[in-house]
Amino acid sequence: MHPGLSQAERAALERAHRERYGLTGAPRYQRAPKAVAAPPGAGPGLEKASPRRLLTLPTPPFAVRALNRMSYGATPESIAEFNALGDTDRARLTAWVDRQLAPDTIDDSAVDQRLVDAGYTTLKKSLARQWRDHVRGDVEYAERMRPGWEVQREALVRAVFSQRQLFEVATAFWHDHFNVMVSDYDCCPVYGHYDRNVIRANALGNFRRMLEHVARSTAMMIYLDNKSNRRSGPNENFARELLELHTFGAENYLGFMDPFEVPPCPEDPDYPIGYTDIDVYETAAAFTGWTINNNHWEFTHPEKDNGGFYYHADWHDSGPKFVLGRFIYPERPALQDGRDILDRIASHPRVARFICRKLVRRFVADDPPQVLVDSAAAVFRANWQHSQQIKRTLRHILLSDEAQHAWGRKTRRPFEAVAATLRVLGCQWTYRIDENRSNDLNWRMGFTGHQPYDWAAPNGYPDVATAWSGASTLGMTWKLQNWLTETNNVAGDGKLLPLLEITRAGLRPSLWTANRLVQFWCQRILGYQPTAQRLAVLRGFMAQNGDPATYVIEDTNTWAQNDLKRHYNHERLRSMVSLILMSPEFLSR
Length: 589
What we know:
It comes from Luteimonas composti. By secondary structure, this protein is mainly alpha-helical.
């Protein structure tokens, strides 16, 4: 790209664009909108939604708030570890964040071994081997899809057992941001490469580097059709989503308008305030020829069928382009057009703001504080070429005053609720492929609408409470949580989760009054005691017709329908635990 043109060159370029795109008197012309703050949530407005009511919850201890915000759920063990990191809340938070932002220094071999022992076989396969074994191999449907299915189930295993909790949360964030639907028939066989080498490899690194890895990845080129993008038949699908979803956001879309009339960006006048349809068309042209080795009949090189990235020069539109206020000269070296556009995008101030708004929404609140968005965007943009750009930006967000004082401004989505449930209830069972109980969980998870990486549209799962507060979503999430507390281990050696064992270890059966049992499990699951009203409901349920303060509930599970305080006590205990899991206190973070 060339930063400046002479007046004559600019006039010639403008005439060429007007002729090419029919800009003179174009009926779809629209002026650039005024710069406004982005809407707080993603997706269309919920005009028919019921008005929201403010629910005031008790403020948990600082460790609980911090861990629920930055991990897949506080547990008694993680709270104790957090509180041992310093003498003040600020010191403990800083120590925890700095440790988690260096995941390579955290030993996570136990979860790696757990995955091996559970029969995961494709996670470490190279892209070429995934392509050979699961795309080109003469295999049944289940074997073809196994790499993606393993990645999908691995996500829950790591969310529950990994010591690198912040890294796992960040990985899920980028999967939603650069969404590729895992159950897509053509993407699923190579999804392991996308997860490992594209998302996980860059989750805390550099956004510009991640952009190119995404653009070159086999899964994304299949999902958004860039594998078939050529000058003789341009496909703008990837280019449009690159600008609309991956970088600028819809709030910076100016529609079909003359690119020479786009106002400068107030934060940096060297950049246009947003992008136009013509920027999409020109970007699509820049990425022509970026494809994959899929044995296309036009390819003649020896490694033409390994599923990897391939630049086919014969397909590339090597003519001049004008993108985001910059001229691209014709006949440039291989890949240079696309790479220069990625540089321009990654350094744009509005891109920094869009990315940081999403990060703040994920870690702080559905309505991101604008002050924090702006300060994070300044860090993000100042470090756009730094190898630890994302890590530095996340540190700024997580240690901010806004993040430290945030509570109850996020709602756990179904997957997050399930992961938190398994973590806090002492799960030692491993979710896997080809095991009945795992298949049961997988089937039930589908009804919640939040199977990992399986959102069909390219915008990824929404990250605001209104998208997950419908009766069906909540009902199916509660049903799944209740199932987890009740279901038997497929091995036949008791329940899936050791609720009775945890209760006996933490509270002697001779002390099992309703009040003590409710207090014990609220402290275990929530990390604090909920409101008096909530406690009263739970105590009444547990006590039935007994005195909640004095009657000792026996450690038995016998039938006694005529005396409900003695009727199936173990079942009632598990149901009381399930009620706590369904509470707003547990589902808020």
